[in-house]
Amino acid sequence: MPAQHGPRRAQIAFSDSAAKQLDAITSEAELHALDRALVVISVDPVAGEPLPGDSTGPRLRQYVDDVERVRLLYWVTALKTVVVVAFIEV
Predict the structure, then answer these.
(1) What is the distance between the alpha carbons of residues 40 and 74, in angstroms, rounded to a whole number?
(2) What are the two backbone dihedrals, phi and then psi, of residue 70, each rounded to the nearest 5 degrees?
């Protein structure tokens, strides 16, 4: 019997500023909370809410997890295969 695979996850990439924010996180609890949020948007890239704006650039989305106290600003590529995180708040 062939193995059942779950849905394909989007790849996560970080903008330069988000990578710097990630490097500044030293708390294990904050890293765990961030990891959980990243898993959510990799499984469902449209999980966050679209932010108001124009259509000249990528459509920014915001994912907020009030329990873990994480906020991510990101956009999804046209093929929904890569999620680019632009801002991290833990």
Answers:
(1) 13
(2) -125, 140
CB 15 within 8 A of CB 88: no
Counting Cβ atoms within 10 Å, is residue 83 exposed (0-12), middle (13-18) or buried (19+)?
A: buried
User: CA 38, 40, 45 angle in degrees (round to 5)?
Assistant: 95
- Quick one: which of 34, 35, 62, 65 has its CA closest to 46? 62
pLDDT, tens digit (0-9, with 9 covering 90-100), for 11-60: 999 999 999 999 999 999 999 999 999 999 999 998 999 999 877 777 89
pTM for this entry: 0.83
Residue 13, CA distances (Å) to 5, 22, 32, 67, 83 in order: 23, 12, 18, 24, 6
Please give the Cα distance from 85 to 74 (Å, whole number): 4
